[in-house]
Amino acid sequence: MKNLLSGLVMAALAGAAGAETLEGRAQMPSGVQTPGGATFEAVLEDISLADAPAVELGRSAFAPPQTYGWPFSIDYDTAALDPRHSYAVRGRVTGATGQLLFVTDTVVPVLEDGADAPVLNLVAVAGADQPVVGAHGLRLPATFTGTLPCADCEGIAHHLDLWPDQTYHLRRIWQGKTPPLIRDEVGRWYVDPARAALVLHGAAEMPLQWEIQAPDRLRALDMQGKVIDSDLPYELQGTVPLEETDLDLPLQGLVTYFADAAQFEVCLSGKTYPVEMSGDYPALERAYGEARPTPGAPLLATVMGRLELRPAMEGPDRRSLIVDRFVSIWPEGTCDRHRAPTRLENTYWRIAQLNGETLTAQPGGREPHLLLRGGADNAYQATVGCNGLGGSYTRDSENGLRFERGMSTLMACPPPLDGWEQAFAGVLGATRSWDIAGQSLMLLDDNGDALAVLDAVYLP
Q: pTM for the full model?
């Protein structure tokens, strides 16, 4: 196996068996504290035999503090180790009456040469969250559904999942549209007590707001947060237990890869999901491996993906990320400024990638950028660092976007600017829609593939 295990086993064979201690840390789901009277257990196991139960090598059990995380340690005998075997640690939290509340649902390898201290990410067991009406007046966790009026379609079906940790998932379907129009988003929520209003901050340019009419009923407010004076149905009805919806959307977050497992923390919500090793995952792993400064370091990434339930190693199925298309890695990026989304218009968008090629400002030249100015003309200005480009744009439906070329300067551009300019003109002509993940704007073609990736820049 690794050098560490080899040395330990050689010592054991020589009759020098001894006790060692594995130290790690357990973490509760984002925003969730352990309940009073709970017990935490961490178990060290030999998981080498696929067709046989894991062999326990050590265990630690204690009453954890009522916090989001805590350290643990497990004593074990080095004589029990075999250099040909694999080892892992798992954790669980049980309630005062013995009911299983939280478990680890991914393999956490340990005792490998150079490995960091293990971190056990605990997830809630299905049915463990008992709906409670909080001070905000909502019974959570819960799902809220309903179909709202639509000016140019048959109705907008809503599926809103709310959790007590102030995160949410939302799927909206514009019924009767051809092709179908579906918009998914994740984010965080808060309640304005002065208005009894639920405010959703996600990928939408403006927060969505709802009047809390009862613990299980919401009514849509307008974009200014005011009551909609209408007899039409603007209500969502809540149901418990929570019935989560699958999502298909662009995501920006921190990806980590360690011990043959990847995780993705979504910037907008702070929630972490295991990453399935399918789809375009190899491209994500390859880019991560080339850019990471140290093993296991988190890096900001943008992907087009799906959040779907997948079988877990232990406990209930867990929602996982399936990467449909890898977009980009941002080695210097963090989630700090990406937690709140930005607006399409009147934002300085730095052009980061065109057709997968990275753009950088050339010496003495202007930075490649795009600026869409709202208003009556819907004008845009852009450059890749040579000629100034301009024209108009139109927005239709929820995220439709088309560009019309207008006047531009006609300087002869040196390489690579000449190629970039030609590629950018092609991107503008092929753009049919847009999407924003955190602070990244993606210009998409008819198939939803990213033609260009742009990064929001905030000017002093």
A: 0.64
